[in-house]
Amino acid sequence: MKRFVSILLVVLLCLSVFACGSKDDKKDDSKGNVVECNVIYIGVFEPTTGENGGGGMQEVLGIRYANSLFNTVNINGTDYEIQLVEVDNQSDKTAAVTAAQTLVSSNVIAVLGSYGSGVSIAAGETFANAKVPAVGVSCTNPQVTDGNDWYFRVCFLDPFQGTVMASYAWDQGYTKAAIISQNGDDYSTGLAAYFKIAFEKLGGQIVAEETYQTNETDFNAILTKVNASGAEVLFVPSSIQTATLLLPQAKALGISAAIMAGDTWENETIISDAAEGVTFSTFFDENNDANEIAKEFVAGFKAWLNADPENLKLNGGSDGVAAVSALGFDAYMVVYEALERLAETNSVAMREALIATDYMGVTGSVTFNEVGDANKDTAYIKTVQGGKFVFIKTQVAE
Amino acid sequence: MKKQTKLMLNLLLAGLAIALLVTVDMTTKSTSMLRTVLQMGSIYALVAVSMNLLNGFTGLFSLGQAGFMAVGAYTFAIITIPVNAKGGVYYLYGVNDAIKNIALPVIPAMIIAGMVAALFAFLIGAPVLKLKSDYFAIATMGFSEIVRMLIASSGLVTITNGSFGLKKIPGFTSFYSPFIVSAVCIGLIVLIINSSYGRAFKAIREDEIAAEAMGINLARTKILAFVISSFFAGIGGALLAQYLGAITSTTFPVKLTYDILLIVVIGGMGSVTGSIISSFLVIASKEWWLRFLDQEHYIGSFRVPLLKSGFRMVVFSVVLMVVVLFFRRGIMGNNEFSWDRIAARFAGRKKTSETEAESK
User: Fold this and answer.
1) Other CB atoms within 10 Å distance of the CB of residue A308
2) Which residue of A has its CA nearest to B153?
3) Considering the entire predicted model, what is its pTM?
4) Total structural domains in chain A?
């Protein structure tokens, strides 16, 4: 018995020495992540599997392309190599937190992403706690940056987008609208809510509001109801996956009302006979010649996609330039441009540099307001015509 | 082995665990993956043990764990979000007057979260517990989905914030909080299992009719197990809410129940230590060790095939299938960790080697 006690004491003693002795090694957290060995790590926090896997991948492609062009940076006379650390957040809010944790623990000094708002909101605290700034790419929900000093974003917001689509619908002469949104999804429900507010303000009438569940495949009941309500236009903010299921069913039911949606629908996979005439708002138009940077980006990105069949496959099988790829490029460039102005090579200084961003990008100029949102005031309305996305007009909120 | 020796060994083990945690806390950066995995593992351990109480010890195959966690997490979030942050959280629909000025401290809020989950269990227990085996599983799973739908439904937007979920939930005050809470709760569950109630649970698992014949009130005992299990699942949910900082209805899908069930099965149905060990193992491998499979790797200029985004989950699933097919009883079966067994194993080996030596 005595022997056991002595062994116990010895072991505990050794451990306590070990525990105290290593106290000095504890790293300093006040500067966030600090760059080591002349390699700057930038995290890519995107869904590449799950519900938003397709769109997330297109964003990653835009970021990879940007990284292939600008992969070294000179800060205060020292050359640094920039490496991407990609992590899949699986379009899942619980997985997103550990995915974010993986990024901050691999010593990234800035994070790009994500595609969807839900995962960004869930991971926001993790980035803030680790003092690592994040630049949202196409997460449009106000909650992403609201109350989080470490989150920025390069896209416009749902209140803006919802209002723009309502204005567009009103301009087209529609007075009765129906809304179909996804229960439990912040993007879809948020956009629907802002559309409703704006459309009713303009004098329109919402005749039906329906919701569906995540991963639902049969929309016949909802569509029949909506059709019977006499709506002239359906507003269906949803994921790409839902769009590819809903559109053929709407066509089969012979729904004559116009169908409108948000930025997610700009993905080649939704194009089909059933998608003809669908309109949606987006961040960018590849055929817009007015912007030199955009022109250069489109040509370069297409060449880059075509150079590797793997990239082409990941882009949905064509070399069409999605708005989210352009946004991914811009997000990377915003970070890159901030890196050039960095005073110290750590993530806290990175945030300071990001605040002062004034960058002219593919999707327009980017400056951040006090919340961390890009000041953007134009949305591009596109439609599907003859199996292609066709640009209709730019629309500003009324 | 003597009782006293065992006590010493147990204390030694606990001391080692504490020393390990302290070492981790002192030496790692606050962003380290090890901390995350340990914290998450402890939360899942609590939920897995609470599920094991029902599925492994009482023999009631419930699939409602995610639902009770959702109830616990939402209750906790609603009553702890700081008053001045509420406006920002309920930005679209406004906040209900009833909860506008409520912001409780963490510990009472966690207990309330558990109690609300227990209340739900009590209410649905009476009708649901009349069902047997598969039907009971389906009914509880249905309950869990109903909870999720209700949370996201438009009727409760001023309380649950509908589809937007709740954020700004106060996080852990220290690195140790989840471990302390989990340890205390699991300790309580073990005490219950070793009490006469626990023996009644096990009697029901083995044979309901025989248990009833021995004077166990079936309905009462079953509902007791159900309520206790849900209480701790609710606390587990509250811990998860603190860990995540932001929750929505989709944080608690049926898949979450399956994940926990998986931990229970891998650890061994009816083994508390098994559940604890397997929850740390499963969480660490899923969130940390296997993550390299998602990235492309090069050996020299050779690109390792198959490694790309999503491959991690494939490997994870295959590992699970192997476990379920070939190690059906899990890590521990329905045994608990015991020094006697370890001693017996060592002694057994020694004895056999001795006999071998003698026979030579």
Assistant:
1) 10
2) A183
3) 0.82
4) 2
